[in-house]
Design a protein that fits this description.
Blueprint lengths: L7 H8 L2 H13 L7 H11 L5 H6 L5 H21 L6 H17 L3 H17 L3 H15 L10 H36 L5 H14 L10 H17 L3 H17 L2 H5 L1 H17 L3 H16 L7 H22 L2 H4 L1 H12 L6 H17 L3 H12 L8 H17 L6 H13 L6 H11 L9 H13 L10 H4 L2 H10 L3 H15 L1
Helix pairs in contact: 2-5, 3-5, 6-7, 6-8, 7-8, 8-9, 9-11, 11-12, 12-14, 14-15, 14-16, 15-16, 16-19, 19-20, 19-21, 20-21, 21-22, 23-24, 24-26, 26-27
Length: 516
């Protein structure tokens, strides 16, 4: 995407639905602004542009260049006010904030009793919906008003508000500590991926335990439990404990089913919880449960009662399609999964301003893997190049690493070995910069570096030797994670048995199903 297209106002205008644009023009009309208003004229120009072009705007003669920045800021603000008035954006949080705004206005007018009445209703709404930060803010305003307007009928009012503020403050502090820990662990995971040895495990464990606050599970509300389960989930992911990942992801999802009103209020967290539940089931190879959970997620999110907005729509696509890919990877149904590629690329274009580049690259890796499994190595290389050539993005090191390794394998498979030596050297140069490579990666790079010295009739024997060596790592808690990104063992078996890799993986899948 070009720099111009990232203009915030332009992106906001382009994100508006037809009904939201109509709402904006009605809102402008209610302001008594005529059609010649400069900010409305700017809106109409931006609405018609396909890409942001300042030269085109200035050519319209709406405003001089030095005034354009102020006009854009004014239009941006007016669009946000219009969206705030739109019923589709009037969720509980907005309603609570609106009531707090009304109460503040009444307070400043000296209408204390009316202000307190609105605040009491807003506070109850906030507490019921676990919006405890807003509830605390409301109590603080109640304290300010009560200090000026003492209601004699409630002589214990001061004590009541003080206790309420203290309780809410404690809960907010606990939730804040848990959310901080969850976010820090997630950031660590994005940067380094899974731990690779005992030393890293100890470091992450010490980090987690030092920052995990003391709590009594029986006194925690919905919000505190949610952040607690998220923190445990990321710790479990980092340390390869996928059974615990499943345990805490299931607790997370069940928490929503036990508090169904929270699904509508926190649909993003509901979607994320289901995604991590599916991810842990994928790593545990629990196929039946995975398929059932994915189907359930699609049914719930397609139901009319499930909230819909641009953000939720984008996230639903992200999580559902990521796991549709994983379903095909589990089954070994790579050819059958190829139609997903065009669907995903179309959706990525639609949601280009809502999905961050890291997740786009993850999709590219999955697409590359789908092509590789289906035997289309050139298609695989095409999408890996998009990841490898992306210099502006700091992605997970493990994703970058395996993109390069899969790229080597795909070049070898496609017979593009005229520059394989150069490719091997550049990949090796990149990998040695990484700390604590998996032994699987080291052995595989060593094997590829020696390919040039092997006679054609000896290649199958070398594949067999490497296969035997890598099988030793298959059950290693640290090394086995390498196989999640690239099933090197199945690829080696496909070379040894002279069969397509998709067929090898499919046979293993059928065998595992039969054994269960």
């Amino acid at each position: 995407m070009t720099k111009e297209q990232k203009d915030n106002l332009f992106v906001l205008v382009k994100s508006l639905s037809k009904s939201e644009k109509r709402q904006f023009k009605l809102y402008v009309g209610r302001l008594g602004v005529n059609e010649d208003s400069k900010f409305l004229m700017l809106f109409n120009v931006l609405d018609k542009l396909s890409v942001y072009d300042e030269a085109v705007i200035l050519k319209k003669g709406i405003v001089k260049k030095q005034q354009l920045s102020n006009l854009k800021a004014h239009l941006y603000k007016q669009i946000l006010i219009s969206l705030r008035l739109n019923p589709s954006h009037q969720d509980i949080r907005v309603q609570i904030r609106e009531q707090l705004d009304f109460a503040t206005i009444l307070y400043h007018k000296g209408l204390y009793k009316q202000s307190l009445k609105i605040l009491d209703k807003a506070k109850n709404l906030a507490i019921v919906n676990q919006e405890k930060n807003a509830a605390y803010e409301i109590v603080e305003l109640e304290k300010v008003i009560e200090s000026q307007y003492i209601t004699r009928s409630l002589s214990n009012r001061a004590d009541e508000l003080t206790i309420q503020a203290k309780d809410l403050s404690k809960q907010n502090v606990l939730a804040s500590k848990l959310s901080n820990l969850s976010l820090q662990l997630y950031g660590l995971f994005l940067k380094t991926g899974y731990v690779k040895n005992e030393e890293e495990t100890k470091r992450v464990t010490d980090y987690f335990k030092a920052r995990l606050p003391k709590y009594d599970i029986n006194t925690l509300g919905f919000r505190e439990k949610l952040w607690l389960y998220k923190a445990h989930l990321w710790y479990s992911f980092l340390t390869h404990d996928f059974l615990s990942c499943y345990k805490y992801a299931l607790k997370w999802v069940d928490l929503f089913f036990e508090n169904k009103q929270m699904i509508a209020l926190n649909p993003v967290f509901f979607l994320r919880g289901n995604h991590y539940l599916l991810e842990s089931l994928y790593y545990l190879r629990r196929y039946d449960k995975f398929k059932q959970t994915l189907q359930q997620l699609e049914e719930i999110t397609n139901d009319k009662s499930f909230p819909v907005d641009d953000n939720i729509d984008g996230l639903r696509f992200l999580y559902v399609y990521n796991n549709k890919f994983n379903l095909h990877f589990m089954e070994g149904s790579f050819v059958e999964g190829l139609p997903l590629v065009d669907e995903v690329l179309t959706h990525l274009q639609v949601y280009k301003n809502r999905i961050d580049e890291h997740h786009v690259m993850v999709f590219y890796y999955k697409i590359a893997s789908m092509y590789f499994g289906a035997g289309d190595n050139k298609g695989c290389i095409q999408f890996l190049e998009k990841i490898i050539s992306n210099k502006s993005l700091q992605m997970r090191e493990d994703l970058l690493c395996f993109s390069r390794i899969l790229n080597l394998v795909a070049h070898y498979e496609a017979g593009l070995d005229y520059n394989l030596d150069v490719l091997i050297k550049s990949t090796y140069k990149f990998l040695i910069k990484m700390e604590d490579l998996y032994e699987v990666q080291k052995e595989f790079i060593k094997f590829l570096r020696g390919l040039g010295d092997i006679y054609p009739h000896e290649v199958k024997g070398e594949f067999t030797k490497l296969h035997k060596k890598l099988k030793e790592f298959e059950d290693d808690p640290y090394q086995s994670r390498a196989f999640l990104y690239l099933d090197i063992i199945s690829w080696l078996e496909s070379k040894i048995e002279n069969r397509p890799i998709g067929e090898i993986i499919r046979d293993k899948f059928q065998k595992n199903l039969a054994e269960k």
